[in-house]
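Much of our argument rests on the idea that a fold can be written as discrete symbols. Part of our work consisted of pairing the sequence of a single chain with a tokenised description of its backbone. The amino acid sequence and the backbone structure tokens for this protein are reproduced below.
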Amino acid sequence: MRRALLLLVLGVLLVTACEEETPADTVSPAAYKASCRSIQFRALDKKPDFYTGYDFYFRGEVVQIIEDEEGTTIRLAVTKTDYGWQDPIMVFYEGSAPIYKDDVITVWGECIGAYSYESTIGAEVTVPGVLAYFVERTG
């Protein structure tokens, strides 16, 4: 009986420890957005793992967006030039976002370091990754 109770308590502690609170759960959206910093893409791109855990905001154009049951994945170009937008980051957002390809949006979230994926031609691409807590169409 004691052993079963101990296992039950350990199981509850383990499940509780795995359920991490996000800033979206603990502070108001306005307070979280105000706490996020901007960063130049070249600094983030050079050392994305160094900035893991830092909260940033980015404004950019949606290059690609994919929604599924796990959430929304956005490839976002964050540097505006005379020729359009460039410098991609990969944004992950839990849930659905009312945005589309070519929309200009702002995201607020936490850097998760370098994110690698395979391009359509089979090359490995590595870009900075961001776990977004808030996403808004801004342009």
User: Anything to note?
Assistant: Confidence is low (pLDDT under 50) at residues 1-18. The domain at 36-137 is CATH 2.40.50.140 (OB fold (Dihydrolipoamide Acetyltransferase, E2P)). The beta strands are 55-68, 71-81, 84-93, 104-118, 124-137. Residues 2-18 form the longest helix (17 residues).
